[in-house]
Design goal:
By secondary structure, this protein is of the alpha+beta class. The strands form three sheets. A twelve-stranded antiparallel beta sheet has the order 14-11-12-13-25-24-23-18-21-20-19-22, sandwiched between helices. Helices cover 22% and strands 40% of the residues. The protein is elongated. It has helices spanning 7-22, 73-81, 132-146, 191-203, 241-250, 259-269, 323-331; strands at residues 2-6, 33-39, 42-48, 52-57, 62-64, 67-72, 86-91, 95-100, 105-109, 129-131, 158-162, 165-169, 173-178, 187-190, 208-214, 218-223, 226-230, 253-258, 278-283, 287-296, 302-311, 317-322, 337-342, 353-357, 360-364. It is built from seven helices and 25 strands.
């Protein structure tokens, strides 16, 4: 293998895959490496971990031949950082040599590429490209909703794409968002991967994103010449469709209110809540009425605010939520006004709340001690 490139381009590609390498156990030497691959005149750097895999093109690099080489990331970054702007890379059977324009020559030993996990990349179906900013916004919302999920609920440590829907859940709220992708695409993405995937998309050149499937659950995200492959969890995402259908039928009353004003009150209420983060919303009457938002800590601190609302249910009603969960749930919507659909409380169960905004649907359960 032989290729020429610029120092900044090489370092940029190495830095983009470095977080994937750093997530691997230090005890496995080959997983502290990156794979450099040349084909069709281009040069790519790739890395693999349990979080996901990434393949990044070195911008402006021109190569001859097709070959793979495995190199320790930290040592390679150190050698490249010591070169001048323009450099040439040559690889023989044992060594990667770097020659820069200031006549510096540096070298480091290479590893056996057969020790590295093999990753199957996909050719994107360009008829199903997504707008980059729209997809980033969806992933940001999904990450915000799922980052409170704990290891006690492993099925929710992921998001699911199925039937042109992005499904998101934590212990107390469940949401689904329409997503324009191949209708046959079905794959899960671990929540720990969402932030890394969003950053990868943001840093890649191009304004369209393609989602492709490899195997049963792996999903390959292609942006420009760069690709990211997720590693799914070995646990199935729960089947939520029946719950959405059931809750939609049972939530017959509507509470219409100003979403931004409620979010402002919730932010202030957090400072006066205990460790449970409990907040109560009391509906004071039927029709055009007021609601009060209340929180109280075990130390005796309390907060109360009032805002107008419209309630088509019968008489007064009290709703109780976790502040953090409710805040993230409401923040995922965009309209100024929001309609909370609520059913009857029965058999000692607190009624879930159902929200529908266009094709975006969410459910949030009430607070239980």
């Amino acid at each position: 293998m032989q290729f020429a490139t610029y120092k900044d381009s090489f370092l940029s590609a190495l830095n983009r895959v470095s977080k994937i390498v750093k997530s691997n156990p230090r005890s496995v030497e080959s997983l502290q490496c990156v794979k450099i691959t040349s084909y069709a005149g281009q040069v790519y750097v790739s890395a693999v971990s349990s979080m996901g895999s990434a393949k990044v093109m070195i911008q402006g690099a021109k190569s001859s031949g097709s070959e793979d080489v495995l190199v320790d990331l930290d040592r390679l970054k150190d050698r490249v950082s010591k070169t001048s702007n323009m450099l040439k890379v040559e690889v023989d059977s044992h060594t990667l040599k770097i020659t820069s324009t200031d006549d510096q020559r540096l070298g480091l030993a290479i590893n056996d590429p057969r020790e590295y996990p093999d990753v199957a990349w996909a050719v994107p179906e360009e008829s199903y490209g997504l707008d980059k900013e729209e997809l980033l916004n969806l992933f940001e919302i999904a990450n915000r909703i799922t980052n409170t999920t704990t290891a006690l609920t492993p099925p929710f440590l992921q998001v699911l794409i199925r039937d042109n829907i992005l499904w998101v859940a934590n212990e107390a709220s469940y949401q689904k968002f329409p997503i324009e992708c191949n209708p046959s695409l079905e794959a899960s993405v671990p929540t720990q991967t969402l932030a890394a995937l969003s950053r990868f998309i943001q840093e890649s050149e191009g304004d369209r994103v393609w989602l492709s499937q490899v195997g049963e659950d792996d999903i390959v995200v292609t942006v420009g010449n760069d690709q990211f492959q997720t590693t799914p969890l070995a646990v199935a995402f729960p089947e939520l469709s029946p719950m959405f259908d059931r809750v939609k039928v049972m939530t017959t009353y509507q509470l219409t209110l100003d979403r931004a004003k409620l979010l402002s009150s919730l932010t202030k209420a957090k400072t006066s809540s205990d460790n449970y983060g409990r907040v109560t919303i009391d509906i004071l009457g039927t029709g055009l009425t007021n609601i009060t938002i209340q929180s109280q800590s075990q130390a005796g601190d309390w907060y109360e605010a009032t805002q107008s609302a419209v309630w088509d249910g019968e008489g007064e009603r009290s709703l109780t939520f976790n502040i953090e969960t409710l805040t993230k749930f409401l923040s995922s919507y965009v309209e100024d006004k929001i309609i909370l659909r609520i059913g009857d409380d029965y058999r000692g169960d607190l009624s879930p709340v159902y929200v529908e905004e266009g094709e975006r649907i969410g459910i949030i359960t009430q607070f239980r001690i």
